[in-house]
Design a protein that fits this description.
Elements: H1 4-7, H2 23-28, H3 51-62, E1 67-68, E2 76-77, E3 80-81, H4 91-105, E4 110-114, H5 115-118, H6 125-134, E5 138-143, H7 162-182, E6 186-189, E7 194-195, H8 203-219, E8 226-230, E9 240-241, H9 246-256, E10 260-265, H10 275-284, E11 288-293, H11 310-327, E12 334-337, H12 346-365, H13 369-377, H14 381-393, H15 397-406, H16 413-420, H17 422-437
Parallel strand pairs: 1-4, 4-5, 6-8, 8-10, 10-11, 11-12
Antiparallel strand pairs: 2-3, 7-9
Helix pairs in contact: 3-12, 3-15, 4-12, 4-16, 7-8, 8-9, 10-11, 11-12, 12-14, 12-16, 13-14
Bound molecules: manganese (II) ion.
Length: 446
């Protein structure tokens, strides 16, 4: 059994916090990014011919999805972690891996970051922006961390202690400022606040304190910056979570101010919940800020998008395309991935996720909205339902391959990644670097 001390330096249970590489090391670190020029590809001459191909091209030209920095690092469950040599050690590694995914898919120019896991105290945001640019990506959503520190035992914004609330607010304001300096639009707030036992706290008093802090954070937003408020029914608190569902997020956002929106994490629902209906309502109220995509079989499992229920993700995308058709313009939605790749290869799992997201988004774009509206007016339920099913079962892979070729991308991103040797080289280099930095990996939970 590993000693408890083996675990402590890692600071948190899910993610490995590595020391920052210094500037010289970052500069010397080889960039394994797959060079597209090395591919023997035909010139991008393909243009869409059929109506379906045109719809696919139109959808893919605008669809971008943000990958999470933590999806490239060693992660696990509350029972422990299994380490991978190729897992990212620090932010430079994470951005390099994100750059590889973007280079292969052309779909992921932004990377979501977690302030405590990715930024060193006092680190110059310009340096981070330059690091990202060097890997061909930008910094996307900023995620403050209001759940890791010991002071948050009884919550952050809803805590009874004004000093804890102040610490949480200060960290949030620091995160908002980081976002301003990095030119990032979204600040994603996930509050782990809640209580474990009935009678433990005043539900209404906690609500009021949460409102006050969210409103104070909103005041510091720059024009154009958005405060996304995520909800989750349970975990880590198991009796009452302070932002348990979309209605609570919606109310907090409305009270916080005009630049606050709801963030829908697909895993943060009870299994029977109709997520696409929530999405449709939020779209209609102009309150949908964005998504954290993942899939789950039981609860917040953080599995690969579409691995369990691809039709559900399709139905969510259908509500979005349907809204665009009715509104005449797309809503401003931040598509993000929030997954833990515990046992899959991290970069491969991310590519698989992105490709799946593209396929499901495109399938939903094939729905004939005009015809659907006519059928809905007549209550022609079978024919209306068949429109959705036909779109869902359409093989869109050939169209997506065409789009990739037209955009100078590899036809099969996963295959191209495997052939690039990126992962093998990264594993070798990172294994050596862990040794050099004295990083001791321990899979122990406690
Ligand atoms: Mn999330």
């Amino acid at each position: 059994m590993p000693a408890r001390a083996d675990f402590r330096p890692q600071k948190n249970t899910r993610f490995f916090l590595a020391p920052a590489a210094d500037a010289a090391k970052l500069a010397a670190f080889p960039n394994y990014r797959f060079h597209l020029t090395s591919l023997n590809m035909s010139k991008p001459t393909t243009t869409p011919k059929t109506a379906a191909a045109k719809a696919v091209f139109k959808a893919l030209d605008t669809f971008k999805i943000e990958t999470p920095s933590w999806g490239y690092a060693d992660t696990g469950t509350r029972f422990g972690k299994f380490f991978q040599d190729a897992a990212a050690i620090d932010l430079n590694d994470k951005l390099a891996d994100a750059g590889q995914v973007h280079a292969l898919t052309g779909c992921c120019p932004q990377v979501a970051v977690h302030v405590l896991w990715d930024f060193q105290p006092g680190q110059d945001p310009k340096e981070v922006a330059a690091l990202a640019a060097g890997h061909g990506v930008r910094i996307g959503a900023i995620n403050p961390n209001l759940f890791q520190d010991q002071i948050y035992k009884y919550g952050s914004f809803a805590n009874t202690d004004p000093a804890v609330r102040k610490a949480a607010l200060d960290h949030t304001l620091y995160s908002i400022d980081l976002g301003k300096k990095l030119g990032s639009q979204c600040v994603s707030m996930w509050l782990a606040d809640g209580v474990n036992y009935p009678g433990q706290a005043s539900v209404r008093a906690r609500k009021k304190r949460m409102e006050e802090c969210l409103t104070a954070a909103h005041k510091k937003l720059a024009p154009g910056q958005l405060l996304l408020i995520e909800y989750k029914p349970f975990e880590p608190a198991f009796y009452a979570t302070d932002i348990a569902d979309w209605g609570m997020s919606y109310l907090y956002a409305k009270k916080a101010g005009k630049q606050a929106r709801v963030l829908v994490d697909t895993g943060h629902h009870y299994t029977a919940q109709n997520i696409e209906q929530i999405v449709a309502w939020l779209l209609d109220e102009n309150m949908l800020g964005g998504f954290h995509f993942n899939d789950r079989r039981y609860a917040d499992d953080d599995l690969t998008l579409g691995s369990i229920d691809p039709y559900q993700a399709f139905r969510i995308f259908h509500e979005i395309h349907h809204h665009t058709f009715d509104a005449g313009k797309p809503a401003d939605i931040a598509y993000m991935i929030d997954q833990s790749h515990n046992d899959k290869s991290k970069i491969e799992a991310t590519i698989q996720t992105v490709v799946t997201a593209q396929e499901l988004y495109v399938k939903a774009a094939l729905v004939d909205h005009k015809r659907l509206a006519a059928l809905q007016d007549k209550n022609a339920q079978i024919d209306a339902e068949e429109i959705l099913k036909t779109a869902f079962f359409t093989d869109v892979k050939p169209f997506i391959r065409e789009w990739r070729l037209a955009n100078g991308l590899p036809e099969d991103p996963l295959k191209a990644h495997r052939e690039s040797g990126y992962e093998r080289d990264a594993a070798k280099a990172r294994k050596a670097r862990r040794k050099e930095l004295g990083i001791v990996q321990s899979g122990s939970y406690a």
